[in-house]
């Protein structure tokens, strides 16, 4: 079974994806880490994020796990990733790796922005996980605070809105709800509630 999970920044995609992967014993790929990884290498090498040819070359040789995850989680990396993710040639360069991961025997869980629309259009289960920008900002602010990185809630909200805007309006594989996806609005749900709702959707799909 392939479970495709999409949604905007900090909506809880990764949290749900990990729980579902553990529940069903499936491998999990956080595709956002690929774009974060490409952006990290660009920044480390002093390359401008807007240079599509350079970003494509980095993406073609990028290997998941080659950059310490801690260096990809930082606040500025989400923004940088969304800049390189808007380059069509970067998306093409990362396509095969994602499709290969999804085609493992038994299936897989992937989360990102274009999983149900581009990477796994035939996935048995497609979930679009969302929440209001205010709720997402509050969750992210709490996450940073718990890592000892206190941030302004207003700043996080501005960043989330900017990232939503860029991810939803780029020309290549924008963030949209796949026509056959089930939307899970998690604004008023805790993590256990989201997992229960997702399992109900999966059970209903048979
Ligand atoms: N239903 C929920 N209720 C409360 N907090 C949640 C819920 N789901 C996720 N969280 C928390 O919100 C934060 C963001 O969740 P998560 O990292 O799963 O989002 P994401 O959509 O994968 O983010 P990104 O787009 O940046 O990869 C985390 O700190 C997580 O623990
Ligand atoms: N399938 C995907 C996954 C991610 N992106 C871009 O990467 C940015 C970071 O992703 P996170 O999930 O780690 O927040 C995101 O804002 C997107 O721009 C993507 O385009 N497609």
From TrEMBL:
UniProt protein name: Cytidylate kinase
Q: What is its main location?
A: cytoplasm
Pfam families associated with the record:
Cytidylate_kin
What lineage is on file?
A: Bacteria, Pseudomonadati, Pseudomonadota, Alphaproteobacteria, Hyphomicrobiales
For this entry, list what GO says about its biological process: pyrimidine nucleotide metabolic process
Residues binding ATP are 7-15
The organism of origin for this protein = Pseudochelatococcus contaminans
Q: Gene encoding it?
A: cmk
Q: What is its EC number?
A: 2.7.4.25
Which reactions fall under this protein's catalytic activity?
Answer: dCMP + ATP = dCDP + ADP; CMP + ATP = CDP + ADP
| Subcellular location per the Swiss-Prot or TrEMBL entry | Cytoplasm
Citing just one GO molecular function, the answer is: dCMP kinase activity
Enzyme type, top EC level: transferase
């Amino acid at each position: 079974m392939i479970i495709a999970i999409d949604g905007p920044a900090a909506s809880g995609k990764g949290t749900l994806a990990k729980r579902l992967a553990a529940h069903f014993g499936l491998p999990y790929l956080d595709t956002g880490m690929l774009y974060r990884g490409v952006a990290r290498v660009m920044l480390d090498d002093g390359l401008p994020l807007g240079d599509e040819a350079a970003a494509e070359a980095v993406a073609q040789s990028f290997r998941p796990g080659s950059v310490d995850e801690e260096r990809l989680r930082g606040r500025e990396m989400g923004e940088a990733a969304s800049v390189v993710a808007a380059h069509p040639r970067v998306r093409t360069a990362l396509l095969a790796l994602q499709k290969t991961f999804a085609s493992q025997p038994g299936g897989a869980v992937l989360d990102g922005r274009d999983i149900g629309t581009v990477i796994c259009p035939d996935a048995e289960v497609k979930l679009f996980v969302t929440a209001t920008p205010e709720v997402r900002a509050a969750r992210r602010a709490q996450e940073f605070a718990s890592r000892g990185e206190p941030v302004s809630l207003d700043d996080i909200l501005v960043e989330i809105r900017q990232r939503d805007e860029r991810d939803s309006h780029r020309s290549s594989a924008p963030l949209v709800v796949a026509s056959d996806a089930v939307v899970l609005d998690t604004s008023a749900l805790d993590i256990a509630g989201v997992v229960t709702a997702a399992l109900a959707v999966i059970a209903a799909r048979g």
